[in-house]
Amino acid sequence: MKNIYINSQGGLGFNLALSHITKELKQVYGKVCILSPYFDVFESCPYVDYVYKPNEIRDFIFDAKHDDAKLICERMYDSEDFIYKKVSYADAWRKAAGIQTKGNKDGSDTRAELYPLKKYPDMINSVEGILSTIKEQGKQDFVIMQFEGGQSPLVEVPVAPDGKPDWSKVPVNYDNEPLKRHYPFEKAQDFIDKFTELHPETAVVIYQLPNEHQFKGTLSFQVPYLVYYELAKNKLCRGTVSIDSSLQHMVAGICKSVVIWGHSLPLSFGYEYNRNLVQSCNRDDILYFSALGPSGARVDYIQPDELLKEVDNYLYPDARKAA
User: Fold this and answer.
1) Nearest to 97 by CA among 185, 44, 33, 54
2) How many other CB atoms are there within 10 angstroms of residue 165's CB atom?
3) Using CA atoms, how far apart are residues 306 and 276, in angstroms rounded to an integer?
4) 68 dihedral zone (left: phi>0; alpha: psi -120 to 50; beta)
5) Could you tell me if 82 and 76 are in contact, meaning their C-beta atoms sit under 8 angstroms apart?
6) Any idea what DSSP says for residue 134?
7) Which residues contact 226 (CB under 8 A, 6 or more apart)?
8) Strands annotated E in 184-269
């Protein structure tokens, strides 16, 4: 069987989406080899045989040539079908890899399957620490939420005099994002306030980087991103509420997820089994091609009260039935 080598050039969500189809790749190819800045994702993936870090690209290319392997180095984002919004993330990867596509019409049906604790056993300390904090707060369960994204967690962070990373020196500029995906801070805070009032027994854990908005009434932790995969698997996790960013890819298929959509659409970037809330927007001139620059198309954001109804109905169905 021929081997396949993939240079995965994209952000965390992009790489997680690739990890979802590695089982399919393994059924067709002898060895699945991935080069990625998010190498820890693929080291946690049971269907990947070899993982290369970015500084090992020379070895990656020469090993591929030695194996006479199928080699993918182009950005899947730049394929014709993806730009024209004809395929999902998963089918775009399948097509690039030369394996059978599935013709997803409402987003991908793929699911996350990672085992980070096998590669990084010390990560359990972070998981247990967060669960202990939630319990100390007197909470019965928790929901993970993400309202901002687009930054790489691998960005170089200046060091403060105390030797700790100084995230205040890392600016956030959402105006340069090609696609508007974040949910406005004021609306997000209003939603969180209403959610915690309705569900005081549930902790809100924010999935974010330290230089993003800090939300009142929530918990946030500086831990490896794969910790959130383990948290989402925990029986105390009711689910997630997020925008189209890395969290939805991290937890795909392992817990209930409500996803809020701006310029992007679940057809291309999402999962058909999630509760996908597509906000009103004129998308006629929005193509998924970053060279066009950011779009100024207005998004009519879902109001916090309506978002609360959607989240409450989806994550708390038993409570709705009892009422």
Assistant:
1) 33
2) 15
3) 14
4) left
5) yes
6) H
7) 40, 41, 44, 114, 116, 120, 123, 250
8) 202-206, 219-220, 237-243, 257-261
The one-digit pLDDT tens for each residue of the chain (323 residues) are 899 999 998 899 999 999 999 999 999 999 999 999 999 999 999 999 999 999 999 999 999 999 999 999 987 777 888 888 888 889 989 999 999 998 877 899 999 999 999 999 999 999 999 999 999 999 999 999 999 988 888 877 888 888 777 877 787 766 667 788 999 999 999 999 999 999 999 999 999 998 899 999 999 999 999 999 999 999 999 999 999 999 999 999 999 999 999 999 999 999 999 999 999 998 877 877 766 677 888 999 999 999 999 999 999 987 654 44
Helix residue ranges per DSSP H, 57-184: 57-67, 80-83, 89-97, 116-119, 123-136
Contacts of residue 18, defined as CB under 8 A and 6 or more positions apart, other chains included, come to: 6, 8, 34, 93
Hey, which residues does 75 pair with through a beta bridge?
none
Q: Enter the tokens of residue 292.
A: 């066009």
Alpha carbon distance 19, 111 (integer Å)? 9
Long-range CB contacts (< 8 A, 24+ apart) of 167-175? 167/209, 167/210, 167/211, 168/211, 170/209, 170/211, 171/211, 172/148, 172/211, 172/212, 174/148, 174/150, 175/294
Backbone Cα Rg of the chain: 20
Q: Residue 232: exposed, middle, or buried by beta-carbon count in 10 A (0-12, 13-18, 19+)?
A: buried
Secondary element (H or E) of residue 53: none
CA 155, 156, 160, 164 torsion-angle sign: positive
CA distance 279 to 282: 10
Tokens of 264: 């992007």
Whether residue 266 contacts residue 107, with contact meaning beta carbons closer than 8 Å, is answered with yes
